[in-house]
């Protein structure tokens, strides 16, 4: 049986915090704690005309990939509510292939 994980393509993350909010609501996580935490990297200047500024959703130790939702065949709440469409859920082997095709701004999370 394949283990499932979360692929985050943070090149397309808009920093909207929908993943954080949906996770907190799904799991009733108290204030000051997160199941997934949006971090900001940058802004920093690359050259005279180019800047880099990324948002990276990072699952925490509280993330169980919405065990109850996925047991019913649904995707995790963060994936469902991601406005940028930068999160995917599925078998780790498939996610690894997608990550290899996408390039460097991806991360795979497996609890």
UniProtKB/TrEMBL annotation:
<feature type="domain" description="4Fe-4S ferredoxin-type">
    <location>
        <begin position="4"/>
        <end position="33"/>
    </location>
</feature>
<protein>
    <submittedName>
        <fullName>Putative oxidoreductase iron-sulfur subunit</fullName>
    </submittedName>
</protein>
<dbReference type="InterPro" id="IPR017896">
    <property type="entry name" value="4Fe4S_Fe-S-bd"/>
</dbReference>
């Amino acid at each position: 049986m394949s283990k499932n994980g979360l692929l985050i393509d943070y090149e397309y993350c808009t920093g909207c915090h929908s993943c954080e909010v949906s996770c907190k609501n799904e799991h009733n996580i108290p204030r000051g704690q997160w199941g997934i935490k949006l971090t900001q990297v940058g802004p920093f200047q690359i050259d005279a005309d180019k800047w880099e500024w990324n948002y990276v959703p990072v699952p925490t130790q509280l993330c169980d990939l919405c065990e109850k939702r996925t047991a019913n065949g649904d995707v995790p709440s963060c994936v469902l509510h991601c406005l940028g469409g930068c999160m995917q859920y599925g078998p780790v082997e498939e996610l690894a292939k997608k990550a290899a095709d996408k390039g460097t701004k991806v991360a795979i999370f497996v609890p």
